[in-house]
Amino acid sequence: DGGDKLWAVSAAGVQRFTVNGDGTLSAAESTLSGITGALAIDCDKVNNVIRVADGDDRVKTYNSLTGAAIGAPFGQVNGYATNPDVEDNKFYLSDPILGYEYKTFIAHDTDGSWWLGDPMNSRCQHFEADNDFIESISFIPKCYSHTTNLTDSSRLFANGLELSYNYTTGI
Fold it and tell me: For residue 46, what pLDDT is reported?
């Protein structure tokens, strides 16, 4: 973080440590509150922010120097349990009940914006520092069968999804 501390996920939660000169870690100096099961963390050293992708399918933001929460958690608590609609602020970060678990990630950019891997929705979401949505990149994992629309080659069907591509704009 901006204070040259190391944040790590352990059985005790998300904690801040000092790395000693001999490479060992100090005792935990701070533990973030309100975390139900951290899946991914990342620090923005420029803005002294740490974001945690939590097991309740929300992203929680903290001041990396003090450990204080910043604003309300972002996203909807276990949103897909009650409503199947996919939204920019609703995430499906893990599902251990299904017997497999894709891994999520958080990564900050130099401008303060951040990326979130939303693996169960097969997408990467990009947000401004204040959580305003910027863009999304979708992908199709493990596709064994797909087809295109014979009358409209911009339409692709794969894994139960219908996708379209605008060939005039490039990637």
Answer: 87
The Cα–Cα gap between 26 and 16 comes to: 9
Radius of gyration of the chain (CA): 19
* pTM beyond cutoff 0.85: no
Please state the separation of Cα 97 from the chain's center in Å.
19
| Distance separating alpha carbons of residues 93 and 58, to the nearest angstrom | 8
Q: How far apart are CA 155 and CA 165, in angstroms?
A: 7
Measured from the Cβ of residue 111, the count of other Cβ atoms closer than 10 Å reads: 10
Question: Residue 7 — φ and ψ, nearest 5°?
Answer: -100, 135
- The more confidently predicted of residues 92 and 99 is 92
